[in-house]
Design a protein that fits this description.
extended; mainly alpha; single chain; 411 residues; two-stranded antiparallel ribbon; 16 helices
């Protein structure tokens, strides 16, 4: 302490000690934060996800339960179950079991084929031995028979008939066991061995979350062909009432069924997914009609439709409406999983048609092919199988004309 009330300035050593202590303190604080930050973020993430699921539950009860059921197990002949193993499992266990049995039977048939050859060779050996007894010694016939006998004897000796039969018996036992499992899956648990699980069935190449959000956003208007009412578009970007965050919350709520859904079987749900039926048969023009005569799908070659003028004359305004109703806007308006809508026609005429893969195509043919046969040409940087694959049996020629007319306005 200086005289007259002045405070002394710490000496150099003291300042060094204070600085060192402060630095060490800061390092300890940073270390403590870095150690605890992951767990803190995990807790935050869990809380956020939990709130998202809670919000999704409210949205589900207010908007979806009427059709899909309060318990999300579906309503008979109205809408399918979402708390459903078909939605969450990668493979249909009955289909896997069927494939296993088929493989085992193939192995058994192959082994049995070996035994059949063995028995044929044994008979040939017996016949050759009998013929040799009556053949003239030293003759060409006798020599040929002896050569045949030697070869057949070698083949029969090297073949372990008992071991081969044991393998067949073991495979038969496995087949019986696997068949019992399949019978239980089909008869008791109600798995259909001819169906794929949902994402495989609709040929979805993305994640379950992207599928749910896309479907919620854009709806499934074409489901009117096999449900009493089509699923409407719920997302605001496709004309529905839900904000993107609400769509995400609803998807999170549905995804939360996974842990219980994978332990269930189809018998535990009230309504399974239905498969669309294109109905009727193709007419000479390549346009399908159902029993009532309504056009329901396109089967003709796109080039033939183009050359006959059937791709022209659409209504762009109606096409814009159908673009939204059919769910196209949900993926393309913002370039979510497909090229952005804006500038479509310009890109077609200045880029796509100049690709050698599209040589000779008109813009109308290119658009029609992209809708009806989406994997015929994949735009660079995009993956095949992402776009809905069966518009060709879900829309009619008028829909196609209107969609083409609308997309030709996107310059």
């Amino acid at each position: 302490m200086l005289k007259d009330g002045w405070v002394s300035i710490p000496n150099f050593q003291t300042r060094v000690l204070i600085g060192t202590a402060s630095f060490v303190g800061i390092l300890l604080l940073v270390g403590w934060i870095s150690i605890n930050e992951p767990s803190r973020m995990d807790v935050f993430t869990q809380q956020y996800h939990g709130r998202s699921i809670e919000n999704g539950a409210v949205l589900f009860q207010n908007n979806c339960a009427t059709c899909h059921g309060i318990d999300a197990k579906g309503t008979t002949n109205t809408a399918p179950a979402l708390d459903n193993p078909m939605l969450f499992l990668k493979d249909n266990p009955a289909k896997v079991e069927t494939a296993t049995i088929t493989d085992l039977k193939t192995q058994r048939d192959t082994l049995q084929g070996g035994i059949d050859v063995y028995n044929q060779n044994a008979q040939l050996l017996a016949d050759a031995t009998t013929q040799l007894k009556t053949a003239t010694p030293g003759s060409d016939a006798a020599t040929k028979l002896q050569t045949q006998i030697t070869s057949l004897t070698s083949q029969l000796t090297s073949f372990d008939l008992a071991q081969q039969q044991k393998k067949i018996d073991d495979l038969s036992a496995q087949i019986t066991s696997e068949q019992a499992k399949l019978d239980d899956l089909v008869n008791n648990q109600k798995w259909d061995p001819n169906r794929d699980t949902r994402l495989t069935e609709v040929k979805w190449g993305g994640t379950l979350d992207s599928y749910l959000q896309s479907t919620i956003t854009s709806g499934r208007p074409v489901s009117a062909a096999y449900w009493p009412q089509p699923m409407p578009a719920w997302g605001q970007m496709a004309g529905g009432p839900l904000r993107p965050d609400e769509v995400g919350d609803l998807a999170a709520f549905i995804e939360n069924f996974q842990d219980t859904a994978v332990t269930m079987s189809p018998k535990d749900v009230n309504q399974q997914y239905k498969l669309p039926s294109d109905g009727g048969s193709a007419s000479a023009s390549g346009v399908k009609t159902n029993a009532s005569g309504k056009t329901v799908g396109l089967t003709a070659d796109v080039k033939k439709l183009d050359q006959s003028g059937q791709l022209a004359g659409g209504d762009a305004a109606l096409g814009a409406q159908k673009y939204s109703v059919l769910g196209c806007a949900g993926c393309h308006m913002l370039g979510v999983t497909g090229p952005i809508t804006a500038g479509t026609f310009t890109r077609i005429t200045t880029i796509r048609l100049k690709d050698p893969a599209n040589a000779g195509k008109t813009a109308e043919e290119y658009i029609a092919e992209s809708i009806i046969h989406p994997n015929a040409y994949i735009v660079p940087s995009y993956a095949p199988g992402v776009m809905i694959q069966d518009f060709g049996v879900k829309i009619d020629i008028k829909d196609l004309q209107d969609l083409i007319a609308y997309l030709e306005t996107q310059k």
